[in-house]
Specification:
By secondary structure, the protein is an alpha/beta fold. It has one domain: NAD(P)-binding Rossmann-like Domain (Rossmann fold), CATH 3.40.50.720. Helices cover 37% and strands 18% of the residues. It contains four helices and four strands, in the order E-H-E-H-E-H-E-H. Strand 1, helix 1 and strand 2 form a beta-alpha-beta unit. The longest helix is centred in the N-terminal third of the chain and has 12 residues. The mean pLDDT is 85.
Length: 91
């Protein structure tokens, strides 16, 4: 079964990860903060704190994923925050 990465395991991403996991897919979730990752530590799939706009963090955690689902949010930030998450985070 293909390995799925949920980049942005917040409200929408967590629901997405739960659905894929329930269907039997191997899932890994990434969330922006260590606090969010800790809150999700009871999930049956791993969740790591990775800032997807930070190439070093992404490189340190990158694996062999067959699909990446981008659910990250800018958290209501300004235009620069949107660019970092939606453009740079998707690269």
């Amino acid at each position: 079964m293909p390995q799925i990465l949920i980049a942005g395991c917040g409200y929408v991403g967590q629901a997405t990860a739960d659905l894929f996991h329930a269907a039997g897919w191997p899932v890994e979730g990434w969330t922006h903060s260590a606090e969010s990752a800790a809150r999700l530590s009871a999930k049956p799939y791993p969740v790591y704190a990775v800032d997807i706009a930070n190439k070093a963090q992404v490189g340190a955690r990158a694996g062999t994923f067959d699909a990446i689902i981008h659910c990250a949010s800018s958290g209501g930030g300004d235009a620069d925050a949107y660019c970092q998450i939606y453009l740079n985070g998707a690269r």
